[in-house]
Write a structure and sequence with these properties.
The protein is an alpha+beta fold. About 30% of the residues lie in helices and about 35% in strands. A seven-stranded mixed beta sheet has the order 1-2-3-4-5-7-6, with helices on both faces. About 30% of the residues are buried.
Length: about 150
């Protein structure tokens, strides 16, 4: 198995949408992803390629001393194999090198696997956003000081 983390390009968007829908049941959508890649100077998006196929990604922002994880997934068949940790570590290192002081994210309150990964990496609970997701589920806001 060969794997690679590389910058996301517009040609990856369709694969990312399929992956988001598989993992989350919904996607940020083509227009938002395309806009992030082409027009947002603070956006840094990376895909995880396994055997030349997109099997995950992390979408982030770096704006001055503040970083944010916008969206992040690894295909279900590759979860639990360390790829999520690799993607997260990759971004956190980029953020540190860019002078970021803290990174925030929102995670579904029911996503115990993701919450565990974030806590293992030093993210701490900040606050809850009630009924944040389309299905009415709460989001937990987590922050990591770098």
């Amino acid at each position: 198995m060969k794997y690679l983390i590389r910058e996301m390009t517009p040609s990856d968007i369709e694969d990312v949408i399929v992956g988001e829908e598989s993992v989350f049941g919904e996607s940020l959508g083509f227009d938002l992803l395309y806009t992030e890649l082409k027009l947002n100077p603070y956006a840094f998006y990376f895909v995880l390629e396994i055997d030349t196929e997109v099997k995950g990604y992390i979408g982030t922002w770096i704006e001055g001393e503040r970083g944010e994880i916008v969206n992040f997934y690894v295909d279900k068949e590759y979860q639990g194999m360390g790829f999520g940790q690799m993607l997260l570590s990759f971004y956190l290192e980029l953020a540190k090198m860019s002078g970021v002081k803290n990174v925030s994210l929102e995670v579904r309150a029911s996503n115990n696997v993701a919450i565990s990964l974030y806590e293992k990496n030093g993210f701490k609970f900040s606050h809850k956003r009630e009924k944040y997701y389309k299905n009415g589920e709460d989001a937990l806001v987590l922050i990591k000081e770098l």
